[in-house]
Amino acid sequence: MKNDLLSVKDLTLEEINIIFKLTGALKKNKKKFNRVLSGKTLVMIFQKPSNRTRVSFEVGMYQLGGNALYLAPQEINLGVRESIRDVAKTLSRYCDGIVLRTFEHKNCLEMAQAATVPVINGLSDFSHPCQALADLFTIKEKFGTFKNITLAYVGDGNNVCNSLIFAAAKTGLNLSVATPSGYAPDNVVVKEALVVAKTSGSKIRISENPLEAVKDAQVVYTDVWASMGQEEEINKRKIIFKDFQINAKLLANAAPGVLVMHCLPAHRGEEIASDIMDSARSIVFDQAENRMHVQKAILIKLLKS
Ligand code: CP
Ligand code: NVA
């Protein structure tokens, strides 16, 4: 049976821990793993722009001895030139894994159902599992544990937020989310996460108050106010989200020494003040780097025969 990675929800805590352990080993000793995916090819279908996801997967495959092939939106024209099902079946005859960056999450499900090789969600409107795994690996690197650590997510209850909720609930990390009214994370995600959190001990709180959310948080996280595909809403959102900016004033309410995270790309001066991005508190580029290490672990887990 092939395995896919479409949502953090599908991973057990044990699987997450295995990925993190392998990530640590890969980060420490790049050379040791440089033939492990020799002869394997990853096809990457992107319907949206990307810096980190595309480059980290491509370089990651190269570092593991494999090959990656990037297909830009206009090349494959997914679902227009050819159905997702037919693309999945065709690519499964050529390659060993597929990364899909798409709009509707159901495209990921359809691709995974039809493909006979593993499918990895490289971001959908619903979730961004590789991002959340890299983020939690980064937090573990900084604190050594998730126990009694609180992450505050301030901003839009979007794909990244949904994935962080699942990841926190599974691992026992406390998560306090604050979004403007009407921009809360997916209701079903929150409900399911609260059930899982009962086992892990994670405290998940959802509110509309950024000051309350960051109170005592050791890590504060944000993401763009308008995600890819929502660009035309940005002017409206700039007004609605104005009190949800990560800046020195907001961080003064967090725990001393608070660290700041952002999945990037950042819109400096909107969801995050530019001086905070460049400050010693910011670990955003550690996160970006860890995308590659975590994804190499995911690739080994899914593609290695
Ligand atoms: N964080 C992230 O996924 O970045 P890209 O959109 O540049 O891939
Ligand atoms: N929420 C953002 C994340 C980008 C990595 C988006 O979907 O555009």
Please give a structural write-up.
The chain is built from 13 helices and nine strands. The chain has 305 residues and is of the alpha/beta class. It folds into two domains: 134 residues, Aspartate/ornithine carbamoyltransferase (Rossmann fold, 3-Layer(aba) Sandwich), CATH 3.40.50.1370; 157 residues, Aspartate/ornithine carbamoyltransferase (Rossmann fold). The protein has a five-stranded parallel sheet. Helix 1 crosses helix 13 and helix 4 packs across helix 5. The site of norvaline has 9 residues, from helix 7.
Helices, strands, pairings?
Blueprint: H1 13-28, E1 41-46, H2 52-63, E2 67-71, H3 73-76, H4 84-94, E3 97-101, H5 105-114, E4 119-121, H6 129-143, E5 150-154, H7 159-171, E6 174-178, H8 187-200, E7 204-207, H9 210-214, E8 219-222, H10 234-240, H11 248-251, E9 259-262, H12 274-277, H13 284-303
Parallel strand pairs: 1-2, 1-3, 3-4, 5-6, 5-8, 6-7, 8-9
The site of phosphoric acid mono(formamide)ester has 9 residues, from helix 2.
List keywords for this structure.
305 residues; alpha/beta; Rossmann fold; 2 domains; 5-stranded parallel β-sheet; 4-stranded parallel β-sheet; 9 strands; globular; binds phosphoric acid mono(formamide)ester; binds norvaline
Characterize the main sheet: 5 strands, parallel
CATH homologous superfamily identity of the largest domain: Aspartate/ornithine carbamoyltransferase
Summing up helix and strand content along with how strands pair, one would put the structural category as: alpha/beta
- Percentage of helical residues? 40-55%
Give the overall shape, derived from the CA principal axes: globular
> What is the number of helical segments per DSSP (H or I, 4+ residues)?
13
